[in-house]
Amino acid sequence: MIKFIVALLCVVVGAILALSFMADSGYLLLMWHNTSIEMSLLLAAILWLLLTIAAFVVLEVLLGVLGLRALLNRWLTLRAYQRAQQYLNQGMVQLAREDYVSAEKLLVRSAKLSADPLVAYLAAVQAAQAQQATQRAEDYLNLIPTKHHMAVQIARIRLWIATGQWEAAAARLKQIYPHYKKEFVISQLLLEVLLKLQAWSDLLEWLPILSKSPHFETVQQQALLHSAYAQSFSYMAKTTGRADKHQAFEQLQLFWQQLPRHHQRDTDIVYSYVQTLINLACYDESARICYRVLSEQWHHGLITLYGRILHADPEIALQQAQQWLVIHPQNPALLLTLGRLCMQCHQWQTAKGYFEQSLALHKNPEVFAEFVRLLQHSNDPQAGHYLIAGLNQLLEQPLPALPLP
Predict the structure, then answer these.
(1) 269 with 233: CB under 8 angstroms?
(2) Of 74, 266, 331, 342, which has the maximum CB count within 10 A?
(3) What are the DSSP calls for 117-182, one per residue?
(4) What is the rounded CA–CA span in Å between residue 405 and residue 386?
């Protein structure tokens, strides 16, 4: 468009000059020593134009033959690269200093000079986002070359998450997931967004797919995955279990079987699953899973749940727990479970002994509550003492030393 306008202006100027020369051609006189040349202005203009064209042609030939053009291009490219890097470095420094206005200007300059402006534009997006300039951030993403399609998609999704556009982020993640199955960040972001939206039905659909990724390694990623499983189990129990606990149990089992093997042996995930089974009164299955996992690896939460299960044969469960006591003799959670199993076997005195041992190792309010309940039903006068001791464990600060009657 610009070239067309320039050409049109040249034609107009040429036409005006032609009309002027037709009215009065004028003349040009050149003198040097004893030599003089006289010609019309029109002829002088034509000769000047031809000389200019000839000079450009000669210059182009010399640049091509001598290799000066390539040298000039390399110098210009290097100069642009150095300036782009200089602006990028300065922009990143300002970004680290949280001077987002200056950082954005420097980063945009760098992007315009750079042959590959991905890094500069992504940093400019961050600077604009910090100023809550969402539209400018979107504009910078649109300027990134299409070869960086995945990076742009991830940056745009993170921008939506930062601005609270969770539904849009979820929709885009679901759309692009089939194309980027091997990109772990897509799985992680989708899991995070579904949890934030509390879209439990979608989570049930996507979790078996997303959990196949082997890259949930950091503490934060593991916590995200465990939270997703816990919420999924709880949602299934609440929605189906209200009407039919047996159906809820079958759905839970089907969902559990779809999980990867290494997740079925993750003690934190097993803990959430067993806790849900106990809430549905599926005691046989929860006892079986607890025993299998605890026989392979120890987990304080699971051994506590093992004591909450109403076992079909509590004496066998008690014998199994007593075998673990040989391996873990000073474990307060195991001693609490042994006390509860003794209560299921009506071994009241033995249960008291286990509770006392557990409290001696760790003053847990749950153990106090269980012990006080047993003492009260046994009409033991020590119940009041342990009740007060248990309540004191719930206080952030001890009671003040006040006069008492």
Answers:
(1) no
(2) 342
(3) -HHHHHHHHHHHHHTT-HHHHHHHHHHS-GGGHHHHHHHHHHHHHHTT-HHHHHHHHHHHGGG-TT
(4) 20
Integer angstrom CA distances of residue 98 from 86, 118, 127: 18, 21, 8
Tokens of 323: 């075998």
Contact 339, 314 (CB under 8 A): no
Beta bridge mates, 35: 32
* CA-to-CA dists, residue 209 to 35, 134, 203, 216, 288, angstroms: 93, 32, 10, 13, 26
The alpha-carbon radius of gyration of the chain (Å, integer) is 40
What residues are paired with 37 via a beta bridge?
30
Nearest to 277 by CA among 261, 256, 296, 293: 256
> How many Å apart are CA 343 and CA 33, to the nearest integer?
130
Lookup: tokens for 388: 């007060």
> Is 126:93 a contact under the CB 8 Å cutoff?
no
- In angstroms, how far is CA 27 from the centroid of its own chain? 78
Q: Which domains are seen in the chain, by residue range? A: 63-164 (1.25.40), 315-393 (1.25.40.10)
In this structure, what is the dihedral angle of CA atoms 318, 320, 321, 326, given to the nearest 10 degrees? Answer: 130
For residue range 284-337, what is the model confidence (pLDDT) as tens digits? Answer: 999 999 999 999 999 999 999 999 999 999 999 999 999 999 999 999 999 999
Task: Evaluate whether 27 touches 38 at the Cβ level (below 8 Å).
Answer: yes
CA distances from 356 to 20, 162, 339, 360 (A): 117, 51, 9, 6
Q: What is the pLDDT of residues 378-401, one digit of tens each?
A: 776 676 666 666 666 655 566 566
Number of Cβ atoms within 10 Å of the Cβ of 67: 9
Rounded to the nearest 5°, which phi and psi values hold at 36? -140, 145
196: enclosing H helix or E strand: helix 184-197
